[in-house]
Task: structure prediction
Amino acid sequence: MLAEHPKQPGLTLVALAFLMVMAGCATATTVTSTSVPATGSPDPIEVVLMTHDSFAISEELLADFQNETGIEIKVLRAGDTGAMVNQAVLTKDNPLADVIFGVDNTFLSRALDADVFDPYASPLLASVPNELETDPRVTPIDFGDVCINWDKGYFAGAGLAPPETLLDLTDPAYRDLLVVQNPATSSPGLAFLYSTIARFGETGDYTWIDYWSELRENGVLVTSGWEEAYYSYFTAASDGDRPIVVSYASSPPFEVIYATEPIDEPPTAVMTDGCFRQIEYAGIVTGTENLPAAEQVIDLLLSTRFQEEIPLSMFVFPANEDAALPAAFVEFAVVPADPLSLPGGEIETNARRWITEWTEVVNR
Result:
């Protein structure tokens, strides 16, 4: 998932064990390379790839890429998505990396406003749907949907119908049952905030601020990030007492595939109303001294070989339509028919104000 899923959402978790397992996954497709000579050179070109903590790539793919191109990728993990973007912005005059992966559309405006990236058009963009492309300075790599997840066992045991809409979450029947993430520090938290803004708007008799006021009165719990919410409070994954959580539409297959004991169906379900689509991007850092090599790293991230690792290593969908999806992922992942979104310009203009207003409403 995106920035904080066990895929990573995110993103980061049982993740340490999960990412170690997934480091061995790779397919047989060849990575193509052009700009930098292939080699057994004793002095490979080093490209630093800054990413969030949930990024996963197989060691085999990294080794094959280095052997074919002479480029050694050094992965620099920089926390969750928000922390990574903030670090990239703060160090833009003395950048720490050549390429950044994992900036999603909830945080993209911060990076673009700071001119962190230079434009690059990979030839592999021909296999990426136009609707995923946002700005020539960044390349779409994967996408997923942030949605409300609920614990099937809890609701069956309580004899309570699960919520079906965003508005249901304000019903007293669900008091003290919802845990969300802080949008100032969490990518899925920010995506969920955007979903409420997209659904309820800023004007009229009932706005997104009214909605969050009602969530607050109904006992919503806010955590700093996805991992804390899911693994400390969500009843399906912890000893917590919250059976409703902001997570990903692809969380159920993760629960099935990596269950301690084999299970036939996920213990969690997805509320498809109110999902917000996240797109993760990669970009070449302005000022890199390794431009041709950085371009090849972007091409690697769009290659079918890496793209086919994405579903089971980061639990999101590949951007490259030529990449095959694993059967288990297809069987258990939910793809909302009509996910919510906001125009990039609106996010860029209003993101900081929305977070400030959210903080005032929820923390008052």
Notes: DSSP finds 13 helices and ten strands in the chain.
